[in-house]
Amino acid sequence: MANTSPNELAAELLRACLAGEEPPPGVAVELARAALGPDPVLAAAASRALFAGLAEPLADRFEPALCEAYARLFSLVLAQALPEQNAEDLFRRYQQVRQVRPVDFEPSRVFVLSRVTLGADVAITSVVLDAARRRFPQAELWFAGPQKAWELFERAPGLRHLPVEYPRQGTLAARLAVRAVLEEALRDPRALLLDPDSRLTQLGLLPVCAPERHFLFESRAYGGASPASLTALAQDWVRRVLGVEEALPWLQPKFACGFGPQPVAAVSLGVGENPAKRVEDPFEEELLVLLSQRIGLVMVDAGAPGSEEEERVRRAAAKAQARGARVGIHEGPFASFAAVIAASSLYAGYDSAGQHVAAAAGVPQICVFNGYASERALQRWAPDGPAPAAIVRAPGRGPEEILDEVRRALGQLPSP
């Protein structure tokens, strides 16, 4: 590590995987040891390289062949963190839990893991939850995940919460610390684990219960070259694993919202920590003005307090208001904004959690996709619900051209 940075090591591994070559196992071990080492600065840098520089680029392409590359590399990584495990056993276990097979026992408790990211919990995890509560009405049903995600389902009758906070910017050791909580919860031999490709198990690799009770929806590979959305693929998976035909995405957030008869457009300018999803200025200001002219009141989410998103939102809103636009700013947790979306006539925003809330709530929407890794990534993350959804592709186009397409999409959606 003295002469090679963690980012360079991750880049070497990623290059080999994308080229279809055998990635050097020694490099993965070296990177893992740095991520687990005593130097906090090096551990943080190596952990970022492992996840942002390697795991996420492999997952974002939705290429089945890259799933095995990921599993082999991260089996080596986890074996460094878990002395009682070896890489080959971890990889064999992964091969077992990823098999699509029907659940053949009646569980007393069913645990559905959060995907950690809010949009995925609506688009995918909620489908698995819906199927589980239909298939096992007598079992205890648990949602295992962060408080912020739990708030999207908090009012659901009979659903319980197992708090599991996952540090998305944490070190490798901090991320793996969730294992103890999950192992304890799953100690009961009649407990069933439904894993929608969760970061909590490092996409199915982290052993938290007996493999025969662990069922992994490997969303990165499932469906192969199909153009289907992740919601549709999750529905197919629960059909085959749980025998439930019509599982649906849903949410019951702890908050409620109502606007009366006036039409409202809900807007999110969040990009999920990926600035490549943004469209350059003055798109955001112009979008707010356009929606106010066409709809009336526009409610835009402020994002996290003190964040770059909040600064952008307030700047765009102030400029739009100065031009006569009716723009309100939503402040509060995402579950509160989800209630705003569900009560709105239209949703518009970048590819982010809001689009999946709108899809599940049956709200017409316009979704701007930018900075996606591949065409299949766009297909997988496309909103999938009963209401019309217009997808605007932004790569290689300027703000005015994108705004023109938003105008055309507005004209084709039903009047609020």
List keywords for this structure.
416 residues; alpha/beta; Rossmann fold; 3 domains; six-stranded parallel sheet; five-stranded parallel sheet; 16 helices; 11 strands
Layout of strands and helices, then pairs:
Blueprint: H1 6-18, H2 25-36, H3 40-60, H4 64-81, H5 87-97, E1 109-113, H6 118-135, E2 140-145, H7 147-150, E3 159-163, H8 172-176, H9 178-185, E4 191-195, E5 214-216, H10 230-242, E6 264-268, H11 283-294, E7 297-301, H12 308-322, E8 327-330, H13 334-342, E9 346-350, H14 353-361, E10 365-369, H15 375-381, E11 389-393, H16 399-412
Q: What's the order of the H and E elements?
A: HHHHHEHEHEHHEEHEHEHEHEHEHEH
CATH topology name of the largest domain:
Rossmann fold
How would a crystallographer describe the biggest sheet? 6 strands, parallel
The CATH architecture name of the largest domain reads 3-Layer(aba) Sandwich
Look at the structure and give the mean pLDDT.
Answer: 96
Q: Portion of residues in helices?
A: 40-55%
Q: What is the assigned CATH homologous superfamily of the largest domain?
A: Glycogen Phosphorylase B
Strand order of the largest sheet: 8-7-6-9-10-11
* Number of beta strands: 11
Structural class: alpha/beta
The CATH class designation of the largest domain is Alpha Beta
Strand content: 5-15%
Number of helices: 16
Give the distance, in angstroms, between the N- and C-terminal Cα atoms. 59 Å
Low-confidence stretches: none
Brief summary of the model shown:
By secondary structure, this protein is an alpha/beta fold. The chain is built from 16 helices and eleven strands. 45% of the residues lie in helices and 13% in strands.
